[in-house]
Amino acid sequence: MNCKRSKELFKEAKQFIAGGVDSPVRSFASVGGDPLFINKGEGSNIIDVDGNRYIDYVCSWGPLILGHRDNDVISSIKAVLERGTSFGAPIDLETELAKIIHESDGGPSKIRFVNSGTEATMSAIRLARGVTGRDRIVKFEGCYHGHSDSLLVRAGSGTMTLGQPTSPGVPAALAKETIVLPYNDENALRDYFEKYGEQIACVIVEPIAANMGLIAPKDGFLESISEQTHKYGALFIADEVLVGFRTCFGTTVSKKNLDPDLICYGKVIGGGLPVAAYGGKSIYMDRMSPDGPVYQAGTLSGNPLCMAAGIATLKRLKRLNPYGSLEKLSTALYNGFKQSADKHDIDVQLPHAASLFSIFFSKTEVNSLHDVKNSNLPRFNRYFWFMLNNGIYLAPSPFETAFLSIKHTMDQIHKTVEVFDKFLDEEIK
Ligand code: PMP
Questions:
Q1: How far does residue 195's CA lie from ligand 1's centre (Å)?
Q2: How does DSSP classify residue 351?
Q3: Nearest residue CA, atom 13 of ligand 1?
Q4: Which tens digits make up the pLDDT trace of 98-152?
Q5: Structure pTM?
Q6: Burial bucket for residue 210 (CB in 10 Å: 0-12, 13-18, 19+)
Q7: For residue 241, which phi and psi values (nearest 5 degrees)?
Q8: Catalytic annotation present for 278
């Protein structure tokens, strides 16, 4: 692949933008190389500035479940653009999107829109602290909940990729209020709550962990969070920013009949524009300013263009109900990869859930961050570059997840499997 123009643009960007990127996960730092600059997207493809075309499994890190430049999304944004770009006053579209989410599986009684997943989780934590009068929170190792101070402690995603799971600059006094327990370890949670349960404001969890690759919750793990929090008067926060609306029309926890106190949304609910939200039971949400004392605000929150993109996306998802077909695609990807790995006698784990997919080069099942770190990371790097050089665009890190959209086709899945098969041919040479 010729990536000359991308390289020139990155060199220039680095002179004016910190690290040349506005989010570290976009750099290819961990796999050793320069990122591609994208010219445009088309359905399930992206085309870089050198004219190379790729099947896109990043989908803007999750939001684009309808693929790039979906007609409904584009025309809704255009229509709203005629009214204006921002008013800083309430508009009808905010309530429309709130109602759609309220009516979705596991939807909250009340919601508030913000601009990023970081703001959503940060605000939910503040609300939990405000409601309980307690400072200490519990999160799980390798879960990423955005980059607010309290949550940037032994996190996943880019922090793991770049080797800084706890960032300098997070005040020690605050970090010590964030207790980090191992994911999928019911006993560790129970033991901790037995000793300190009455000091805990909330437990925040990714109900399917997707920022250390994809790791499903073990049976009983989420149930034990619900049980322990409620036993000790703490709040249960489901961070559905990444997985919400990706495996069903609503929250993943609703499929397990769990009823979290607060839910965080992002990504899909904004259809590619900056939208996230937190919501939950009215008894808690009514404690937010202006009705209650817990403060949170945003100049551009509920922005008209963003609301329009979110409404168009969710309406389309509701109409289509594409989760079964997405599951077929990811299962086909699983089957193809598995067959090829078996043929080459290469150890691989291939977790997938509807539109989410990831790969670990590991002999044993991967259930925690520790297991991810013990997988064959150099092989992942080689996999990343081989796939990229053959037209498959994946996240440049084993700590991330691949995303499918409704625009991906079975032909593209077969093409991806073919490239993977060639990669494994190289690996055993
Ligand atoms: N929570 C989860 C589960 C996430 O995956 C992310 C981002 N990948 C965030 C929160 C933070 O969202 P944002 O990047 O929009 O701040």
A1: 30
A2: -
A3: 117
A4: 999 999 999 999 999 999 999 999 999 999 999 999 999 999 999 999 999 999 8
A5: 0.97
A6: buried
A7: -55, -45
A8: no
